[in-house]
Fold this protein.
Amino acid sequence: MRVNRRRIEISWGGRRSSRPPRGFLGKVLSFALGAVLLVGAFVFSLVLFAVLLCVGLIAGIYLWWRMPGLRRQARAQAGESPRGVEVIEGEFTRESKGDGEADR
């Protein structure tokens, strides 16, 4: 028994994309299109970098501006003393001499 299998070929736009350009004009157009795409990708990356840099800078300035108020608010919620007053908390144990010796 013989099975006929069809070979499926996918072509984009009705022509093969792997075919090299023919003639001098085709090569020049291919080079120009490649150069335009390369320059376009470079410009896009520069614009994207500039936008991300501006957003990061604005977020950093905003946080720098809001940080003292947020610290004060966090201290107030935690019940800490205001700035400039130092409170030392701790525990201590006083051990006495157990053999009946007098303190000197």
